[in-house]
């Protein structure tokens, strides 16, 4: 008998519900064609939750998120809620979810689909076949370290302070995620910091080396963050898994993502301790400028769902099938407006979803 997987779907605001609709169609397809069963619950988050409950994440929704295997998240925010207090703003709901689920590992793949190599800002030969994974530590480092703040120095001068701080356990747990990921990929990890000028970087390097002893099958290299930024745009295919802290990961993941083209194509995952919380979401926001027009690209959200299949539900074959189906549709010159190129066929959000279902059926036979 097939196992039933639990999932909470939080479509959110703007284009969130539009792109999530296409994920639901993929879920139905898996049920019918691969006998993969999901027990789905659905809730409000962000502006929709604020309108309904006066908060951007209701306690009941949070409890549901903690009880399921994974959360599929659309996007939140929009001009309608710009005047709302900061702690009730749509984006606060997402931050609270990440914190409460203790999602310390943020996975951002940079995967270049062959039909889109021309959309990259780099030469096609540099990105053709590109498949790297940036793993960013998400709950520690300089964004959270104390002391922090802006002080008046009393002489017309002010001082801004932030503290980069990491403890052993924070480095160990994210390093384990990196090595485990590498085992499912090409078996290489590049750990990135600034050990040459920062003690927290030196600790990072030493503690990653400690964990590496448990993974003798994985090749580990260390690289300074500034060099890594340069290497990413010089020869990005040299990397497999890049493991880095919150601050460097913020920047390096944006650089790597843009190697592959459009925001509408970029999935992400945020993971906590094994089996205790996972959230999958597109990198893009709620895109209020195109919401309601039926033209949003659903691929980033569908690929985020594929990541859920791979990393939470242990369904790697189906994850690969979805990625292959996306590639097939792009190969057939089908495009949403954001990735439109001359001579290709432009389709709506639901038409793109339909083409992906057709490709799934074709590849499954
Ligand atoms: P955005 O990602 O929503 O949009 C940036 C641009 O990319 C827009 O022109 C948009 O039309 C386009 N775009 C984004 N996703 C697309 C898709 N799937 N298909 C086609 N085009 C797409 O970023 P923004 O405009 O800076 O922010 C809009 C709102 O989203 C804000 O309220 C912001 O706070 C929120 N936001 C939410 C998240 C999240 O929920 N994780 C992330 C980023 C921004």
What do these coordinates show?
By secondary structure, the protein is of the alpha/beta class. The protein folds into two domains: 1-104 and 272-365, Isopropylmalate Dehydrogenase, CATH 3.40.718; 111-262, Isopropylmalate Dehydrogenase. The protein is built from twelve helices and 14 strands. The chain has helices at residues 16-34, 47-53, 59-67, 90-100, 124-127, 168-183, 199-212, 225-234, 246-258, 299-311, 316-331, 349-364, and strands at 4-12, 37-42, 70-75, 105-111, 131-137, 149-152, 158-161, 188-193, 219-224, 241-244, 267-271, 278-282, 334-335, 345-346. The protein has a ten-stranded mixed sheet, with helices on both faces. It has a two-stranded antiparallel ribbon with strand order 6-7. Strand 1, helix 1 and strand 2 form a beta-alpha-beta unit. Helix 6 packs across helix 7 and helix 8 (225-234) packs parallel to helix 9 (246-258). The mean pLDDT is 95. The chain binds nicotinamide-adenine-dinucleotide. Nicotinamide-adenine-dinucleotide (NAD) binds at residues 15, 19, 75-78, 91, 94, 263-264, 281, 284-290, 296-297, 300, 338.
What does the secondary structure layout of this molecule look like, with pairings?
Layout: E1 4-12, H1 16-34, E2 37-42, H2 47-53, H3 59-67, E3 70-75, H4 90-100, E4 105-111, H5 124-127, E5 131-137, E6 149-152, E7 158-161, H6 168-183, E8 188-193, H7 199-212, E9 219-224, H8 225-234, E10 241-244, H9 246-258, E11 267-271, E12 278-282, H10 299-311, H11 316-331, E13 334-335, E14 345-346, H12 349-364
Parallel strand pairs: 1-2, 1-3, 3-12, 5-10, 8-9, 8-10, 13-14
Antiparallel strand pairs: 4-5, 4-11, 6-7, 11-12
Bound molecules: nicotinamide-adenine-dinucleotide.
Residues 15, 19, 75-78, 91, 94, 263-264, 281, 284-290, 296-297, 300, 338 line the site of nicotinamide-adenine-dinucleotide.
